[in-house]
């Protein structure tokens, strides 16, 4: 298996020349994207949150007056621009670059799905980590799935069967706990999410 860098632009540029068969790179399921690709059943549930210096973000109302870094072309950037038009949104090529901007004072917060933000903070030395916090609220409910070329229904069914089997066998929980369990630096409860059809998942 050959793996391409998981940036969104690279993924889509490689997609159409048939250089990749699957996209599994923090790929949020949306109606717009579903017009272009098949999606597997959701394998991960998340929500859009923020990292800021402690005390900066207490409620969603605070978002409206801030300079916020977001990954270029992501669902998070689009949501922020549509629902918080008074916020100053600065686009970056990826989340680590946005986080550097936050640490340098070029933006007052950055936004991504909560799992990615937990990972960013988890990799900081304790002294630096103490300066930041993840917002106590999320502004969306999002589900991530595997992207599959349009029309590849057999491949879609195979991916779905594999993911659902992981859930039924208990392997999905083991994989989750390996990366987000209570003994990790990126601890985050899985909650009641289970791999299964999108229409059976809780809405925002």
Notes on the protein architecture:
By secondary structure, the chain is of the alpha/beta class. The protein has two domains: 8-45 and 143-200, Periplasmic binding protein-like II (D-Maltodextrin-Binding Protein, domain 2, 3-Layer(aba) Sandwich), CATH 3.40.190; 48-134, 3-Layer(aba) Sandwich (D-Maltodextrin-Binding Protein, domain 2). It has eight helices and nine strands. The chain has a five-stranded mixed β-sheet with strand order 5-4-6-3-7, sandwiched between helices. It has a two-stranded antiparallel ribbon with strand order 1-9. Strands 2-8 form a two-stranded antiparallel ribbon. It is globular, with a radius of gyration of 17 Å. The protein starts with 7 loop residues before the first helix and ends in a 24-residue tail after the last helix.
Which labels suit this protein?
204 residues, 9 strands, 34% helix, 5-stranded mixed sheet, 2 domains, alpha/beta, D-Maltodextrin-Binding Protein, domain 2
Largest sheet, in brief, is:
5 strands, mixed
Number of domains: 2
Report the mean per-residue pLDDT as an integer: 88
Given helix and strand content, the structural type is alpha/beta
Level-2 CATH architecture of the largest domain: 3-Layer(aba) Sandwich
Neighbour order of strands in the largest sheet: 5-4-6-3-7
Distance between the termini: 36 Å
Percent helix range: 25-40%
- Counted by DSSP, the helix tally is 8
CATH topology label of the largest domain: D-Maltodextrin-Binding Protein, domain 2
Instruction: Please state roughly what percent of the residues sit in beta strands, choosing from under 5%, 5-15%, 15-25%, 25-35%, 35-45% or over 45%.
Output: 15-25%
Rg to the nearest angstrom?
17 Å
Class of the largest domain, according to the CATH hierarchy? Alpha Beta
Topology, number of strands? 9
Q: Output the CATH homologous superfamily of the largest domain.
A: Periplasmic binding protein-like II
Assembly category: single chain
Protein name: Sulfate starvation-induced protein 7
GO biological process, one term: amino acid transport
Pfam family, one: SBP_bac_3
Domain Solute-binding protein family 3/N-terminal: 1-183
